[in-house]
Amino acid sequence: MSTADVIVIGLGAMGSAAAFQLAKSGQRVIGIDRHAPPHDQGSSHGETRISRQAIGEGAAYVPLVLRSHEIWREIEEETRQSLLLTCGALVLSPRQGAAAHHGKSDFLLQTAASAEAFGIQHELLDAAEVGARYPQLRLRGDEIGYFEPGGGLVFPERCIEAQIALAKRHGAQIRTGERVLEWTSTAHGVRVRTDLDVYEADQLVLAAGAWMPGIAGPALTCLALQRQTLHWFEAEEPEQYQADRFPVFIWIHGSGPEDLFYGFPIVPGSQGVKVARETTRFMSATADGLDRVVAESESQAMFDGHVAGRLKRVRSTCLRAAACIYTVTPDNDFVIDRHPEQPRVLLVSACSGHGFKHSAAIGEAIAQIARGGQTSGLASFGLGRLLGAGGQSQVPQQDRIQ
Ligand SMILES: Cc1cc2nc3c(=O)[nH]c(=O)nc-3n(C[C@H](O)[C@H](O)[C@H](O)COP(=O)(O)OP(=O)(O)OC[C@H]3O[C@@H](n4cnc5c(N)ncnc54)[C@H](O)[C@@H]3O)c2cc1C
To answer: How many angstroms does the Cα of residue 360 sit away from the middle of ligand 1?
Structure first.
C-alpha cells in the first residue's frame, strides 16, 4: 500500500492544478484519475475556454483569475508551451434590460463594475464602435459592449497536460486509468480504494468534476449536471476570424436565460469558428450516462438560433461538435471547502460552467489549505451557504427534464 501526504482524486482542471501545486510545495502527492487526462469524457475538453479578468459572476473570483493568468505565464516559461492567448474578450448585451449570465443579473454591468474595482483595463462601447472594430459581427444597433484587452482564452487540454507533467517533475505519483471506488476516514487520515490498489494519506482532495455527486456523498446532493454542446462552424474567410483580429465573445441577445451564445477565434491548428450556447436544463443521467453524440439537429438549432444573422460569413456547415458537462450549484457559484463531516477531505467542485479560468489559482489555494494556511480568498465558496437544516445540501429548484 502506497502512502502520501495528500491524495488527489480527479486530475482534470482542478485536480491537475492541485496536484502540481501540492507537489511543488513539497507535499508527497498521489494523483488518481479513472481516465488519462487530458481526455474528452468530463468538463475540460474542446480546445479552448474563455478567460476574463473582470468577473461578472462576483468580485470574489477576480483575484483567482488574475493569479491564474500569472501562473499560466509561469508554466508557459517552464514548459515552452502557449497556454493563455490574450486576444481580447468582448461581452455584448442589450442596452435595455438587465441581461443575466451564470445566474447573475446585469452581467455586463457587474463585469464593468468589477473592472473598475480592480483597475482592470477595459472599454465600454456602443454598437457602432463594436461594429467598427469587429466588422465580423452583425449588430442590431441597440447593444452595449464591454471590451477587455487582457481577456482571451486558455487551452484546457494543454494546461492539464502541463500541470500533470510538472506535478510528476516535483515528485507526485500519477495513476491514470485507475478508478476510485471508495474513500473512508481512518484514525489518522484517509484510505482510498481503487479498482487496482489501496492508498492512505493525511488528507484527500476530491476534484472529480461531474462525478462529484457520486463520490462526495450526501454533502454534495446540491450538485446537478447539464449537458452542453460545442460546435465548430465553417467560416467563408477563416482569416477574418483568427485571433489577431477577432476576440472571444459572450453575446447576450435577449432577456431569456438561454438567449446568449459565446464564441472563440479560430486558433492555430484548428478549423471553424467554435460557438456554444448554455442550456439551463438538468440531466437525469449521471456523468457516465452522458449522451456524447451531438445530433446534426442540435448543431442546426445552434446555428439558426444564435449564429445566423449575427456572425457574418459563417456557414451552417458544422465541421465538428462535442458534448461536455457542467456541474452546477443552485446559485451557480463554486464549492471549495472542507467536507462538513470529514475535515481531512477537501471538496473542490461545482465550477458551474465558469471554472477553468480560475483553476490554476484554485490549485494553489488548495495547496495552501492542505498545509494549514489561511483561505480567506475562498470564503465565498463555502458549502455552508447551501446546507439545509438536515446538513444535506439543497437540491436545485428546477425539474430535471433531460
Ligand atoms: C462546454 C463547456 C464550456 C465551458 N466554458 C468555460 C469557459 O469558457 N471558461 C471557463 O472558465 N470555464 C468554462 N467551463 C467550465 C470549466 O471547463 C470547468 O469548470 C472545469 O473544466 C471543471 O474541471 P474539473 O476539474 O472540476 O472537472 P474535470 O476536468 O472533468 O475533471 C474531473 C476528473 O475526475 C476524474 N474522475 C471522476 N471520477 C473518478 C473516480 N471515481 N476515480 C478517479 N478519477 C475520477 C475524471 O476522469 C476527470 O478527469 C466550461 C465547461 C464546459 C463543459
So the answer is: 13
Q: How far apart are CA 362 and CA 369, in angstroms?
A: 10
351 lines ligand 1 (CB under 6 A): yes
Q: Whose CA is nearest to atom 49 of ligand 1?
A: 12
pLDDT tens-digit map of 359-373: 999 999 999 999 987
Confidence check: pLDDT of 351 > 90: no
* CB 101 within 8 Å of CB 260: yes
CB of 179 closer than 6 angstroms to any ligand 1 atom:
yes
Give all strands (DSSP E) within 272-313, no chain letters: 273-277
Residues 127 and 244 in one domain: yes
Question: What CATH number is given to the structural domain containing 180?
Answer: 3.50.50.60
pLDDT tens digits for range 259-300: 999 999 999 999 999 999 999 899 988 999 999 999 999 999
Strand partners, 385: none
In a domain, 78, yes or no: no
Distance CA 352, CA 224 (A): 9
Let me know whether 229 and 209 are in one domain.
Answer: no
Number of other CB atoms surrounding residue 237 within 10 Å = 11
* Inter-residue contact 288 to 310 (CB < 8 Å): no
